[in-house]
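Run log, item B.
One chain of 217 residues. Sequence copied directly from the ordering sheet:
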Amino acid sequence: MSATVNVGMLELDRKLSKVLDCARQQPVSVSRYGSPWVWVVSHETWIGQIQLTRYVPPRHPLVALREHIDDTLRAHAALLRQASLDCGLTLDPAILCRTHILQLLYPAGSKPYFHEQIAYNLLFRWFAGLSEGGGCECAPTFDDELDAVAGHAGIAELLRQALDDGLLTPANWAMRKRAAQRPAGTGRRPLAPGGRAVTESRHVPVSFGRASGGGRM
């Protein structure tokens, strides 16, 4: 079963009560002119999201990265819809894309360990959007759909460009994390306004696609 429900403005207008009843069970995405517009969520989901953001350090690099990735995904909504059709996705492709980025930046070495991280690491859950996904990481198809998104040529190129052009690459991610831990007021920040890195670093090519094993987080 899908972790979210998608409806259009016309359906929302005609079946408001039904949509609201559905939103109490799982988030409902309302589209306008074919693109996501607003979300309808239950009170419990909304309060849970507010509480979760209290545990997200505002200076952590993932905060700026999440904003940039969301902008990129919104700008390429048509590609996400096509990828959903190509891969037969039942889960939110945006959540799958952000989860795959976590696989690239924090290679866990094994799927069980990665599942443990996204289940209990509140920062990871916030970044991927899993707190809004109605438990989609527990869906039987989650791993297969995550692999499908990672192997989709269009999505892989989009995410590579988003990381390489907009913010940073996994190759220099460790340096950014260390920079984020410096005390405020040192004059050095991991990311400049607009999401670009302050310091220059040598670019190391990154292979995008299925996440491979690596060091533990």
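Observations after the first pass:
- DSSP finds eleven helices and three strands in the chain.
- The chain has a mean pLDDT of 75.
Flagged for discussion on Thursday.
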